[in-house]
Amino acid sequence: MRADHARAIGYGRLMRAFIVTFALPLVSSACVSGGAYDDLLMAHERAKRDVVEAQLVRDREVHERKARETELAALQADKAQLERAAAQHKDEHAATTAQLAKAQKDLAHASDELASTIRDRAGLKESLTELQAALADVNKRKAEADRRLAEFKRLLERFSALIDAGKLKVKIVDGRMVVALTSDVLFAPGNATLSPEGKAAIVEVAGLLASMPERAFQVEGHTDNVPIKNAQFPSNWELASARAITVVKTMVDAGMPAARVSAASFGEQKSAATNDTPEGRAQNRRIEIVVVPDLSTLPGFDELKAASN
Predict the structure, then answer these.
(1) What are the backbone angles phi and psi of residue 267, rounded to the nearest 5°?
(2) Superfamily of domain 159-308 in the CATH hierarchy
(3) Residue 187: closest CA among 287, 289, 272, 255
(4) If DSSP states are collapsed to H, E and C, what string results for the chain?
């Protein structure tokens, strides 16, 4: 509004200046009084000033317009810069959001890997504990095996003279140490009475076995498959049983504690060789003195004992 008012004033002044300027020569050429001329002259000067002022106003308006245009251009440039900054900020925000999402994903993956590592370490610790327990069990079994091997070697050493004389054999049968004596050396056919030579052998064997501390023994009677049936021995079961009991009694008489020895009969049921040849049947007619295993020394005995309670 102020600019429009100033513009109107400027136009009015220009019109007055125009009239005075062009009217003055006409008036001056006529016959006028001196006072009127002076008034016209003053009006002419004012008109000139008004023209100058109007020109100044117009110049100021042009300057202001240019200033506004410059300010507008600056504002537009600022706006464009702000828009570019906003676009850049938007891009940076999108990039930051993407980086944050990736970081969260990486963190989740790292957390999963950490949890997996913790589980693996727990599993490894458990496996290590199990491995150590298994190793201890293996070492215990090995120690027991070594002990039994050493005991078997000592048994061989004790009976080396009788072994060399062919009176008996020391062997491992079904995981047990066995002293095997041929019945033909100990007994007459179909008889359960020890021969003098057989009694001497049993006495010697009993003395050697009695020297094995805290060991129990089972005397097992075995026959071939040739049937026997008489009043004394209705079958090979009775013959084998009578022979085993005879050996047990002889061992006890020789100093073996009765609580450490027992008798059993297998008859012809556990042959050591074929019964199709005389040689095989001779091997099957035998007395076996078994060293009863001490289960308390075996791995797992405590668990087995606990389970039986």
Answers:
(1) 55, -130
(2) OmpA-like domain (3.30.1330.60)
(3) 287
(4) CHHHHHHHHHHHHHHHHHHHHHHHHHHHHCCCCHHHHHHHHHHHHHHHHHHHHHHHHHHHHHHHHHHHHHHHHHHHHHHHHHHHHHHHHHHHHHHHHHHHHHHHHHHHHHHHHHHHHHHHHHHHHHHHHHHHHHHHHHHHHHHHHHHHHHHHHHHHHHCHHHHHCCCEEEEEECCEEEEEEEHHHHECCCCCCECHHHHHHHHHHHHHHHCCCCCCEEEEEECCCCCCCCCCCCCHHHHHHHHHHHHHHHHHHCCCCHHHEEEEEEECCCCCCCCCCHHHHHHHCEEEEEECCCHHHCCCHHHHHHHHC
Q: Which residue shows structure tokens 């000067």?
A: 45
- 206 band by pLDDT with thresholds 50, 70 and 90: very high
Is the Cβ–Cβ distance between 250 and 199 less than 8 Å?
yes
The predicted model scores a pTM of: 0.55
Cα separation, 159 vs 130, whole angstroms: 43
Looking at every residue in the chain, the average pLDDT score rounds to: 83
**Closest C-alpha to 297, from 132, 150, 127:** 150
Length of the chain: 309
Looking at residue 282, what is its pLDDT? 94
Domain range list for the chain? 1-144, 159-308
Residue 104: pLDDT band (50, 70, 90) is confident
* Residue predicted with more confidence, 304 or 157: 157
Find out whether 291 and 214 touch, Cβ atoms under 8 Å.
no
